[in-house]
Amino acid sequence: MMSSKALIDSAVFNSTTAGRKGIADKLFAHWFSRLVYAQIWEDPQSDLQALQLRPGANILTISSGGCNALAYLSAEPAAVHAVDLNAAHLAMLNMKQQAIKHLPDYDAVLAYLGNADQTDNLKRYKRHIRQHLSEDAANFWESRSLTGKPRYHYFTDQAYQHGLLGQFIGIAHVFVRMMGGDMRKMLEARNLQEQTSLFERYVAPAFDTALFKLIARQPLALYSLGIPPSQFEALKNDAHDGLHSLFKERMRHLACDFPLDQNCFAQQAFGRRYDTGKQTALPMYLQQAHFPALRRNIDRLHAHHTTLTDFLSTQPRASMDAYLFLDAQDWMDQQQITALWEEVTRTAAPGAKVVFRTGGSASPLEDKLPAALLAAWQTDPAHNRALYATDRSAIYGGMHLYQKI
Q: Pfam families in the record, alphabetically (predicted)?
């Protein structure tokens, strides 16, 4: 089995890895080999709305922080296969999976995975979870972080503030305060009108400062968001008024277009935690309404430390109903995307659907897929734009749905 480093290298290094971008690719691959996402930043409600799954579906998704793979269990699938290049992400998924399966009840799960900051979580881990972890996940969680404590202590210390993205959000809060703003002020809003007013007063001005304009032009500054050099180029193509303006508008979408008490992504961005007192403010997999289905179907979730293409090469023809690729294709060159979609097309059942995000607004398939492959699939740009408008994470430029003809 390939190591995380080798898998990440195989995904990041491609025909475009040369010159200055080659150096950037190597830096990003090294940076991405640790825990990046303690929670995922794609909206599973939008995914399920797009897919319209029937019970018994076979689903392939990228794991990332594991939240969405777990949420899809609410759709009563036959199987959810969660693939990731990064073993730390699969360790996070395994932690969440075993917590849902083995903790005594919903309240214990919410304390462990929702609050993720209680001293009693050490007892919950040792009594109910530790012995059920996979070998690789146990090695990750029992090993020590830079603090000198085993990593399972994350769940007594705001687990979602750890990982590169969690740390990045913390730095963003400090930066905005330095610029005279305050991201936490957003949580005082009682309605959408107040959200807009507070955003304009306490958050938006930081994006227009000379310092942020300089930072926004540096690819290295965005590595903790999981944005590789190739995706950074796509962002620049969409940033007609400068990257600082593009980032401000996406933050505005997150801050102003959805009620904060119905947006777990905004809760993390502005409060650096989940509001466990409001069910609608929780990620889908932690909402009590879905808990019985998740617990009933928890063993239908299967983790795989490999690439999407390599996993699909092991699957039978016409065996998969749904594919969720997050933004992985933004990393790929034409050869990699073609190899992936050859396997997608072979393994897709009639009517199968593929959902993915892009850093920019455009889908890469029309430019990169051979015509014969693309002809097997249909998409509706207007419907894709409507789907994108429902994604509460608001960090991407596009959401795309393709269906097998």
A: DUF3419
